[in-house]
């Protein structure tokens, strides 16, 4: 039996359908956040836990690059690390996220320490880093294709935060504004690479499974936030309202 695969257009449609059905813009926590219904405790919990994900993105990309024997692929991919880490003293998505943390009343040093991160958040994010480090390159790259769907949610977030929360301003929403241009650049290359290299049914199935896995990583983080801070079931060791505030 031959390993027949559909054409690239059908494969791309399959990947986009995964995002349409599974991307975390559909999660009720995001509807609550963007609609202005979150309490400040819930906003702070989101900022603290999402920080852990943001902080691991450049580590994930460094792990990926360490596996790439093609120097051109490394040259292209390393811009992702630069986008998040910035220069030695300025810029970068991580610093912008800490400006958001400061804007919502949290001590940036507390947030950066990761002490308040929920166990479920840590587990999901660490699983993503391991996936990218250990899985075949096609699957590792395909897992980042959630960026196909990111600009829309960033636009909704900027609009929703500015409309509903006093802390929102150009400085505190800078992370999301930068991702409006960074994510399309990154995903255009990655999508083309995956479409060009996943030419067998086996590889296409692996890429689709990787993208599905990544949507589950993102969804699981929001499920944990909802259970912990909307429903009030904060797990042991996680941040509790009043901790880590600016003095």
TrEMBL record:
NCBIfam families assigned to the protein according to its UniProt record, in alphabetical order: PQQ_syn_pqqC (TIGR02111)
Protein name: Pyrroloquinoline-quinone synthase
UniProt keyword list: Oxidoreductase, PQQ biosynthesis
EC numbers: 1.3.3.11
GO molecular-function terms, A-Z: pyrroloquinoline-quinone synthase activity
Catalytic activity: 6-(2-amino-2-carboxyethyl)-7,8-dioxo-1,2,3,4,7,8-hexahydroquinoline-2,4-dicarboxylate + 3 O2 = pyrroloquinoline quinone + 2 H2O2 + 2 H2O + H(+)
Record's function text: Ring cyclization and eight-electron oxidation of 3a-(2-amino-2-carboxyethyl)-4,5-dioxo-4,5,6,7,8,9-hexahydroquinoline-7,9-dicarboxylic-acid to PQQ.
EC class of the enzyme, as a word: oxidoreductase
Organism expressing this protein natively: Gemmobacter lutimaris
UniProt record similarity statement: Belongs to the PqqC family.
HAMAP family: PQQ_syn_PqqC
One of the GO BP terms on file: pyrroloquinoline quinone biosynthetic process
Annotated pathway: Cofactor biosynthesis; pyrroloquinoline quinone biosynthesis
Thiaminase-2/PQQC domain span: 13-223
InterPro entries xrefs: Haem_Oase-like_multi-hlx, PqqC, PqqC-like, Thiaminase-2/PQQC
């Amino acid at each position: 039996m031959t390993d027949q695969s559909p054409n690239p257009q059908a494969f791309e449609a399959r990947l986009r359908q995964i995002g349409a059905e599974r991307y975390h813009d559909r999660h009720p926590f995001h509807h609550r956040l963007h609609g202005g219904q979150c309490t400040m405790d819930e906003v702070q919990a989101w900022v603290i836990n999402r920080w852990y994900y943001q902080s691991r993105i450049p580590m994930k990309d460094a792990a990926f690059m360490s596996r790439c024997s093609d120097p051109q692929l490394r040259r292209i991919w390393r811009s992702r690390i630069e986008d998040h880490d910035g220069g030695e003293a300025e810029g970068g998505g991580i610093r912008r996220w800490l400006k958001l943390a400061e804007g919502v009343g949290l001590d940036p040093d507390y947030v950066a320490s990761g002490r308040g991160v929920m166990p479920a958040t840590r587990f999901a994010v660490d699983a993503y880093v391991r996936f990218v480090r250990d899985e075949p390159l096609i699957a590792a790259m395909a897992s980042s294709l959630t960026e196909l769907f990111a600009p829309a949610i960033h636009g909704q977030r900027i609009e929703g935060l500015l409309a509903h929360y006093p802390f929102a301003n150009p400085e505190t929403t800078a992370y999301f504004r930068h991702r409006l241009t960074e994510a399309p650049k990154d995903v255009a290359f990655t999508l083309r690479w995956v479409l060009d290299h996943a030419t067998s049914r086996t590889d296409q199935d692996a890429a689709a499974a990787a993208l599905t896995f990544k949507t589950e990583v993102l969804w699981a983080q929001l499920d944990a936030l909802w259970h912990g801070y909307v429903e009030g079931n904060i797990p042991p060791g996680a941040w509790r309202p009043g901790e880590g505030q600016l003095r």
